[in-house]
Amino acid sequence: MGSIICWRDSGQNKKSHTWEALAKWYLSDETYHAKALRLLAASFYRYSGEPIGKEVARALYGTELENSVTRLEQFAECAFAHYMTYGLGLSQRELQEFAGVDMGNIYHDALWHFAERIRRSSYTWYDLPEQMREAWIEESMNDAIAGCANVGAFDEAKNRYLLSRMKDTIRRTVWALTIQVQKGRFYAE
Known about the structure:
- The protein has about 190 residues and is mainly α.
- The protein has 9 helices and no strands.
- The protein has helices spanning about 1-10, 15-30, 35-45, 55-60, 70-75, 80-85, 100-120, 130-145, 155-185.
- Helix 2 (about 15-30) packs across helix 3, helix 5 (about 70-75) crosses helix 6 (about 80-85) and helix 8 (about 130-145) packs across helix 9.
- The longest helix is centred in the C-terminal third of the chain and has 27 residues, at about 155-185.
- The N and C termini lie far apart (about 85 Å).
- The model is unreliable at about 5-10 (pLDDT under 50).
C-alpha cells in the first residue's frame, strides 16, 4: 500500500482518490489480495538488467548507425517500440480495408455475373421469374465478393453491414433494370 501512496504523492496521478479506494478494496478482500499485490508490484517494476552486448547490437542494428529525428524520438518515447521496429524489423500488420473502389468493383462484377446467368439460361430479361431473379442476385453477389481482392475485409462487422446494404442496392438495381428493359424496345441477344 505504501507504493500507492508514493505514487499518489509524486503528483503523477491527480485523480488518485477513486483509484486508491478501489485498490484498498481489492487489497482488503481475501479473494483478490494476492492478485492485487502482484498487479501493484508489476505496475512499478523497472527492468534493471544488463544492456545487450556489442555483438548482439551489431547483429540487430548493423555496423553503420542510421538515425533520423523520428527514429530518435521513438527511442526517447519507448525504447522497446524502437527495438521492435528497428532491431527486429517488425511492423504493424496491414488491416484488410474495404475502399470505395472495391465497392464499385463488386457492384460491377455482380451485375456482370447476373447478366451472364441470364445469357446462359433459357430465360430472358422479360420472363425471368422473381424467385429465380432473387436467387441469382444472391449468387452473383457471392461470386463478385469471392473475386474481390480484399475478401478478408468482410470479416469485420462494419463491412458485413455494408455488404448487406450493397446486396439491397444490387437487388433494387436489377429490379429497375428489369423494368426498364421490359418497358423498352431493346432486346438483348
